[in-house]
């Protein structure tokens, strides 16, 4: 009897387990032109005006719908996005940290901000309800800005929303007293005592599809919902002319602008920066780069754009034991190498310069030369896997001129650690493609002309959520499923 009871209990448990494993969630599909679909769709026209099922007009309407959907999909897959004020970036050299800046528009009504471009960090922050910010009048920045910079006020934007501590993207949640508080932020940067802090908000970033390759039936303007740092307090370099009107982080973090744009299905998960020799350049969101570009994989390290350099070469001579990891950082003005590699590279460059080293007050570089003739220095070549090479054709920069003499410097320093970093000074003359979709860095020689951007090839559809900022309701685990009206 006990054995029979045990057997029956086993069978019951097995059936219960099988029933649990076999359970599915279903939803009834309703075609939009079915009788039920016609009754469900709320339109400004009567359902009687819809074509009769399986008539010529019926199939023509479906075909037009398919065509429209395909063109809209191509808008994200084939095109590049640029800020609503254009793709151009600007720089004014040493006056503003040697960084590149671009104008962006935020909020409703839109307000313009001149933000520094930084691939080494994630957050987009702008001066906001300032307690401690840099001056914003154009007279302070005459060589950079042609109009006054702005201070953001969330209360003045009808599309602004409070960003709560309960949101999954709030890194400061453990420090919040209540999940209903507004999420605070603090970002510390590499430069000494340089930081930005304040509160996070949601608002609209205004963009436009690159007019050089915008497809028909795809809207020219785009309003993308993103997270913004309301920067109430800045410190260090941010008070003395570097990024006075904010900074756009372009990193791999979920809170960066490229992450929001790609998750919203507005672009391919990639962007490019191009800096020319005339202190100008371009930024393109969704740019995958030309097919002939060279490339190397990003290393899975600290969620940063880090690449593995296999060797450093001066001209055609490769230096021994010069492999290292390098952060590709447009927010860093200059280039830094691990100490031992820095010494090898600097000594080899110095060997080719027919001039004595001179010290320059206020300059951190060790290898500077005062001469009447530009030194003939071979290119620095960074070698990567698969025989890909990044060539720095002009390693020296002109620092100053007086009485017929020119001071040239090697703008490289020791990083003081095992990793190095490639700053934007050595990105000049290249279209740098940050391909986050395939986790690789691409580069190709470029004059950064707007009409040279070529639409990328299509890829399989993204599986990312179309809404980059899920509400608390969207994040719930509810199993309730409503009937769906299929758009086909």
UniProtKB/TrEMBL annotation:
Query: What biological processes does GO assign it?
Result: proteolysis
Q: Which GO terms describe its molecular function?
A: aspartic-type endopeptidase activity
Cell compartment(s), UniProt? Cell membrane
- Region (Disordered) residue ranges read 451-488
In this protein, the active site sits at: 118, 329
Q: What is its main location?
A: membrane
Q: Which UniProt keywords apply?
A: Aspartyl protease, Cell membrane, Glycoprotein, GPI-anchor, Hydrolase, Lipoprotein, Membrane, Protease, Signal
Its membrane topology, per UniProt?
Answer: Lipid-anchor; GPI-anchor
Boundaries of every Peptidase A1 domain copy: 100-444
Q: Where are the transmembrane segments?
A: none
Signal peptide interval? 1-22
Q: Which family does it belong to?
A: Belongs to the peptidase A1 family.
The molecule here is called Aspartic proteinase-like protein 1
Alphabetical list of Pfam families matching this protein: TAXi_C (PF14541), TAXi_N (PF14543)
A GO CC annotation given for this chain: plasma membrane
């Amino acid at each position: 009897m006990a054995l029979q009871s045990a057997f029956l209990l086993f069978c019951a448990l097995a059936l219960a387990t099988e029933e649990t494993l076999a359970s599915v969630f279903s939803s009834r599909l309703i075609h939009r032109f079915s009788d039920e679909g016609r009754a469900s769709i709320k339109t400004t026209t009567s359902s009687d005006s819809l074509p009769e099922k399986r008539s010529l007009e019926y199939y023509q309407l479906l075909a037009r719908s398919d065509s429209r959907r395909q063109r809209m999909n191509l808008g994200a897959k084939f095109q590049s996005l640029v800020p609503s004020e254009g793709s151009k970036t600007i720089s004014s050299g040493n006056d503003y940290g040697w960084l590149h800046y671009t104008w962006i528009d935020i909020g409703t009504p839109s307000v313009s901000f001149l933000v520094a471009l930084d691939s080494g960090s994630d957050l987009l922050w702008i001066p906001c309800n300032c307690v401690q910010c840099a001056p914003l009048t154009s007279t302070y920045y005459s060589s950079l800005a042609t109009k006054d910079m702005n201070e953001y006020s969330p209360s003045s934007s009808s599309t602004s929303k409070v960003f709560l501590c309960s949101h999954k993207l709030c890194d400061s949640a453990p420090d919040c007293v209540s999940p209903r508080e507004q999420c605070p932020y603090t970002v510390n940067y590499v430069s000494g005592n340089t930081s930005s802090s304040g509160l996070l908000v949601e608002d609209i970033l205004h963009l436009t599809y690159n007019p050089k390759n915008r497809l028909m039936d795809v809207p020219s303007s785009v309003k993308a919902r993103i997270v913004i740092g309301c920067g109430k307090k800045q410190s260090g370099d941010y008070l003395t002319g570097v990024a006075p009107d904010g900074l756009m982080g372009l990193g791999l973090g979920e809170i960066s602008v490229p992450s929001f744009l790609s998750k919203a299905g507005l672009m391919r998960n990639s962007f490019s920066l191009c800096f020319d020799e005339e202190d100008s350049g371009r930024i393109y969101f969704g740019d995958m780069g030309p097919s002939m570009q060279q490339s190397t994989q990003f290393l899975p390290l600290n969620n940063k754009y880090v690449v593995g350099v296999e060797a450093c070469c001066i001209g055609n001579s490769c230096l021994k034991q010069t492999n290292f990891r390098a952060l590709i950082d447009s927010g860093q003005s200059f280039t830094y190498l691990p100490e031992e590699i820095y010494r090898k590279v600097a000594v080899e460059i110095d060997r080719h310069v027919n001039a004595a080293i001179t010290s320059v007050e206020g300059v951190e570089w060790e290898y500077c030369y005062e001469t009447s003739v530009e030194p003939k220095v071979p290119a620095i070549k960074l070698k990567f896997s698969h025989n890909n090479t990044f060539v720095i054709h002009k390693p020296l920069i002109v620092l100053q001129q007086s009485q017929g003499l020119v001071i040239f410097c090697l703008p490289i320093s020791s990083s003081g650690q095992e990793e190095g970093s490639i700053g934007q000074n050595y990105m000049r003359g290249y279209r740098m493609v940050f391909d986050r979709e395939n986790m690789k860095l691409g580069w190709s020689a470029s004059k950064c002309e707007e009409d040279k951007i070529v639409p990328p090839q299509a890829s399989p559809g993204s599986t990312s959520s179309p809404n980059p900022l899920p509400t608390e309701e969207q994040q719930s685990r509810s199993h309730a499923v409503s009937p769906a009206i299929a758009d086909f």
